């Protein structure tokens, strides 16, 4: 069993670009399971794998109040982005800091699900911002940059 913990800024792992996943095996599913556990415990709405020290291109989000709308993105790719929105952002890895950033209000991305199936996801507003924040994590970028 993996024991994974949230890592905090300025841990260098947050600055490393995450790598593509070739095979979605039990280990990857276990990482995702742990990511949700940690994200829900910390009352977050999004988490990238490198925030728990795993240098792989996975992120999860759930913006529902009931914590029952899990979204999982493996090897995400931005297909289209447009519009603008300003939202106050925070990050589980950088507690206590909030900043209003300019982001794209609409986004379309592709990714793989846990069965390895390709899908396209289109969204806007908070979810769009959340996705951009998490994809930044996978590229070693932080919202305070
Ligand atoms: Zn973050």
Written description of the protein model:
By secondary structure, the protein is of the alpha+beta class. The chain contains two helices and seven strands, in the order H-E-E-E-E-E-E-E-H. The strands form two sheets. It has a five-stranded antiparallel beta sheet with strand order 1-2-3-6-7, sandwiched between helices. A two-stranded antiparallel ribbon has the order 4-5. The structure holds zinc ion.
Number of strands: 7
Low-confidence stretches: none
On the 0 to 100 scale, the average pLDDT is 96
Number of helices: 2
Hetero ligands: zinc ion
- Give the H and E element order: HEEEEEEEH
Shape, per Cα inertia axes: globular
Spatial strand order of the main sheet: 1-2-3-6-7
Kindly name the structural category. Answer: alpha+beta
Short description:
The protein has 145 residues and is α+β, with helices and mostly antiparallel strands. The strands form two sheets. It has a five-stranded antiparallel β-sheet, sandwiched between helices.
Features:
single chain, 145 residues, alpha+beta, 5-stranded antiparallel beta sheet, two-stranded antiparallel ribbon, 2 helices, 7 strands, binds zinc ion
Layout of secondary structure:
Layout: H1 26-41, E1 46-48, E2 58-61, E3 71-82, E4 85-89, E5 99-103, E6 106-112, E7 118-124, H2 125-138
Antiparallel strand pairs: 1-2, 2-3, 3-6, 4-5, 6-7
Zinc ion is lined by residues 91, 93, 133, 137.
